[in-house]
Amino acid sequence: MVSSKASTVEAYLEELPPERREVIASVRDLVNAHLPEGYEETMAHGMIAWVVPLSRFAGTVNGQPLSYAALAAQKNNYALYLMCDSLSANDGEKLRAAYARAGRRLDMGKSCLRFKRRADLFDEAVAELIAATSVEETIRRHESTRKRP
Fold it and tell me: What is the CATH number for 68?
C-alpha cells in the first residue's frame, strides 16, 4: 500500500493485513509514547501523521499543518518519515551515529527511514529523535527557513 484513502488512523490500520497492521501499530505506539506534548496524530497524504495543529500554527504556505513525522506501510517496506530530521542536520547525524554505534544498518533517505521488518527499526534511537523537538522548536525551525520580505 503506497497511499491510503482512510480518513482515520483506525481505518488505516483496519485496511492493513494483520502482520503489517501489527508492525505499523507497534511503531505508532513507539512514536506516541515519545511524542512531545502539543503534536496531533492524524491522517495526511495517505499515512499516519503527527503534525503541529493549525490551531497552534496556521502560517504555512499551503494551509496544511506542519508535519513532524509520518508512518506508512509501503509496497515493499515500511517508512517512518522524520520531518524533524530534515529540519536539523544535527538530529540526522545523531540518528546515523546511533545506528552505527549499535552496528545496525540504516536505510534512510533525506527524511525517510525505511525498514522491512519491525526488528530493523532501532527503537532507542528513533524514540530519542522523536522526543527531541518540541512544537515550539518545530515552528521556529520552519520559520527560519522562510524568506522574509
Answer: 3.90.1150.200
Residue with cell 490551531: 55
Q: Cα separation of 6 and 3, whole Å? A: 9
**Owning domain of residue 131:** 9-144
Answer whether residue 149 is part of any domain: no
Backbone angles phi, psi at 79, to 5 degrees: -135, 130
Tell whether 1 is covered by a domain: no
For the entire predicted model, the pTM comes to 0.91
Residue 25 forms part of a structural domain: yes
pLDDT in tens, 93-124: 889 999 999 999 999 988 899 999 999 999 99
Evaluate whether residue 3 is within a structural domain.
Answer: no
Side-chain half-sphere of 34: how many Cα atoms within 13 Å?
18
What is the DSSP track for the chain? ------SSHHHHHHTS-HHHHHHHHHHHHHHHHHPPTT-EEEEETTEEEEEE-TTT----SSSSPEEEEEEEE-SSSEEEEEHHHHT-HHHHHHHHHHHHHTT---EE-SSEEEESSGGGS-HHHHHHHHHT--HHHHHHHHHHTSPP-
Count of domains in the chain? 1
